[in-house]
Amino acid sequence: MSYLLTATCAVPAVGAVLTAALPGGSTEARRRTAKVAALVLSLATLVLAALVVAEFEPGGARYQLTESYSWIKSFGISFSLGVDGIGAVLVLLTAVLVPIVMLASWNDAEPIQNPDGTFENLRRTQGFFALVLAVESMVVVSFLATDVFVFYVFFEAMLIPMYFLIGGFGDRAGGPDASAQRSYAAVKFLLYNLLGGLVMLAAVIGLYVVAADQGLPTFDLPTLSAAIAEGKLNIDPSAEKALFLGFFFAFAVKAPLWPLHTWLPNAMGEATPGTAVLITAVVDKVGTFAMLRFCLGLFPEASQDFGPAILVLSLIGIVYGALLAVGQKDIKRLVAYASISHFGFIIMGVFAFTSQAQSGATLYMVNHGISTAAWMLVAGFLISRRGSRLIADFGGVQKVAPVLAGTFLIGGLATLSLPGLAPFVSEFLVLVGTFAKYPVVGIVATLGIVLAALYALLLYQRTMTGPVTPQVEGMADLKVRELAVVAPLVALTIFLGVYPKPLTDLVNPAVDATLSQVHQTDPAPAHPVAATTGGEHK
After folding, report:
1. Residues 6+ apart with CB under 8 A from 189
2. 173 or 391, which is more confident
3. Is residue 47 very low, low, confident or very high in pLDDT (cuts 50, 70, 90)?
4. List of residues 6+ apart from 114 with CB closer than 8 A
5. Chain segment 387-418, per-residue pLDDT in tens
6. How many CB atoms lie within 10 A of CB 444?
7. Over pLDDT 90: what percentage of the chain?
8. Among candidates 365, 373, 371, 305, which has minimal Cα distance to 511?
9. Kind and range of the H or E element at 346?
10. In this predicted structure, what is the pLDDT of residue 531?
11. Strand intervals (E) in 119-171
């Protein structure tokens, strides 16, 4: 049995403990040691994630590199791990983004210096980087867990380090009442997600009871999915709908889906840029991923029954998020509402039940993570230089910091899905796949593209063009460390926009398997090609 998946989960977890245990940062050297140690361990996780992808065979079994360790025998609970194509690309996305977030946040968690030169909270640096590693470990387990109970435990556990990252390490440009706003955002994040988790816990218990009553007392996902597909586990339709809603509610909060989205703008607005990236590019992806793996895999009939209603909610989220992004005065909240719109596209792709739409939704999870990370982190560099998040406080930045302005433009163009950049491929597949089955939904969803062009280009115009305002006259351009943060994200955005085949080869078999679980096939073309005989049309 391979231990590769366990190692991929364990390295950041061990790293979190070791980083937290390092001596307090009373000197710059000690703080640098903690940062370097955390960065090295995150890079080690990246190497392991790359090995997972390299070892994965797209044409092989649904779940590969499987591992299972008995945990609570009396309830059939095991610490079981397995990776499919969708999980593989999301684990790799997480492993790529975490070291980038650490580099971007290099100076965001320094101890607080008093006017007399002394420092408070000397373990602040160690705490921040340990929490980031803890989040990474829990997210990776969530993408790899094939035991429903194990998934639930880590799905909920990741809320704790995220709560402290939001509430304890906020944006320094937040204003005089920043501490109160941070606390409010952190509590709102925790309460919303805990509520979703409690509803899911009831559904997890209900699933176990139903399965145990039919002689299958287990939480093992492949076993349950196979039993449902083969008719060996029959769930009453009304019970299946209730269980589906319990799981889906938790995932919709995490995603987030309108109208359960209101925690996200507060959390992203008050968090550091690096933490904001963790929220929207890493943690929230667990929700959309779980819709594919658990909602569709365990409750195929209920998924189809609720599919049209979920498509309507997704459509509202696309338009609503984009409209609010257009009207924002705060840069970070604009990015947050743009993300709500993008999550609407992802969820729409999941519940359109076509291979193109679901492949596009999976690619969108990856490409949105990369492009939003680039946009948000460059925005963070911009905000830290000016000391303000308000769009009106900028102007003419491209004349004094052209590299910063150029990378900010690329992030904005990726957000509006410009052809040639990674999100375009994803959005195109989602729209084409949705239109094939639900033409009206596909047509209305294109309004999100128009509005995305509006908010992205208006933001660039108002901050980067025009006369140079006095407050930005001396603004420095991107430094070496900041270029090291942005360069890989820009390179990936362009590469995956031109050549997405490495990702599609990984995810398509898993998408096909998911569609077969819900007994769905792609609709036949409206105008099939005429049959031919001997090379001539009949």
Report:
1. 159, 162, 163, 166, 263, 266, 267
2. 391
3. very high
4. 120
5. 888 888 888 888 888 999 999 999 999 988 89
6. 15
7. 52
8. 365
9. helix 331-351
10. 44
11. 119-120
Indicate if the alpha-carbon torsion angle 155, 97, 406, 445 is positive or negative: negative
| Predicted confidence (pLDDT) per residue in 276-326, tens digit | 999 999 998 999 999 999 999 889 899 989 999 999 999 999 999 999 999
Longest dimension (CA), the chain: 91
Asked if 77 and 150 count as a contact pair (C-beta separation under 8 A), the reply is yes
What Å distances lie between residue 388 and 269, 375, 395, 439, 463, CA to CA? 12, 17, 13, 43, 12
Distant-in-sequence, close-in-space partners of 458: CB < 8 Å, separation ≥ 6: 326
What's the chain's Rg over C-alpha atoms?
Answer: 23
In the predicted structure, residue 534 carries a pLDDT above the cut 50 = no
Q: Strands, E, within 342-479: which ranges?
A: none
Per-residue confidence (pLDDT) for residue 452, from 0 to 100: 92
Q: How far, in Å, are 4, 52, 351 from residue 56 at the CA level?
A: 11, 6, 26
What does the pLDDT look like over 243-260, one tens digit per residue?
Answer: 999 999 999 999 889 898
Q: Token match 């070291």: residue?
A: 99
**CA neighbor of 378 nearest in space, from 492, 463, 263:** 463
d(CA 248, CA 203): 10
> Closest Cα to residue 18, out of 101, 154, 140, 126?
126
Q: Which of 298, 293, 193, 301 is nearest to 252 (CA)?
A: 193
Q: Side chain identity at 269, as an amino acid letter?
A: G
Mean pLDDT (whole number) for 87-91: 93
List 68's β-bridge partners, or say none.
80
Higher-confidence residue of 28 and 524: namely 28
Phi/psi for 77 (5° steps) reads: -100, 130
Which pLDDT value is given to residue 270?
86
Q: How many residues does the chain have?
A: 538
Split at pLDDT 50, 70, 90, the class of 532 is: very low
- Looking at residue 530, its pLDDT comes to 47
Instruction: Please give the single-letter amino acid code of residue 377.
Output: L
DSSP 2: -
- DSSP 3-state helix, strand, coil percentages of the chain (rounded to 5)? 70, 5, 20
| Contacts (Cβ under 8 Å, ≥6 apart) of 319 | 341, 444, 447, 448, 451
Beta strands 77-83; 112-113: pairing state: unpaired
83 DSSP β-pair partners? 64
Supply the pLDDT for residue 246: 94
Instruction: Quickly count: other Cβ atoms within 10 Å of residue 468's Cβ.
Output: 15
Contact, 51 vs 88, CB < 8 A? no
State how far Cα 205 lies from the chain centre.
27
3-state secondary structure of 44: helix
Enter the DSSP assignment of 520. Answer: -
- The structure tokens listed for 500 are 């997405």
Kindly provide the b/e burial profile for residues 450-461, where b requires at least 16 CB atoms within 10 angstroms of the residue's own CB: ebbbebbebbbe
